[in-house]
Design goal:
By secondary structure, the chain is mostly helical. The protein has helices at residues 2-23, 30-53, 64-68, 70-84, and strands at 55-56, 60-61. The chain has a two-stranded antiparallel ribbon with strand order 1-2. A hairpin with a 3-residue loop joins strand 1 and strand 2 (60-61). Helix 1 (2-23) packs antiparallel against helix 2 (30-53), helix 1 runs parallel beside helix 4 (70-84) and helix 2 (30-53) packs antiparallel against helix 4 (70-84). 15% of the residues are buried.
Length: 105
Amino acid sequence: MCLLIFILEVLGVCFAFYLKAKLSGVNINEVKIYVGVLVNSIFITVYIKMIKYDEFWLLGYRPDIFYDCIFVGWFTFFCVFAHAMAIPVGRKVKWWFSRKNGDWN
């Protein structure tokens, strides 16, 4: 169960940064910003419920998960901040692995 939750959290953070890369750019508008904020707010709300109340989406109240896998609890805490940084910006954002040598513009 711990591995499944960890994988879902990693996929959630990857989706948030993928969305940031797609929505960011010089032609950013309010709709793109609101979509980015809404998606990340939903993820942050789910993570805070997991941390504070031990309520997991589709699993219900499960205090044993974080008790058995302390690393997953700390990674969930990290995910809150990762989603907070995944808001679209007014410059073009690329994935870190898609950049060529010296191409940081």
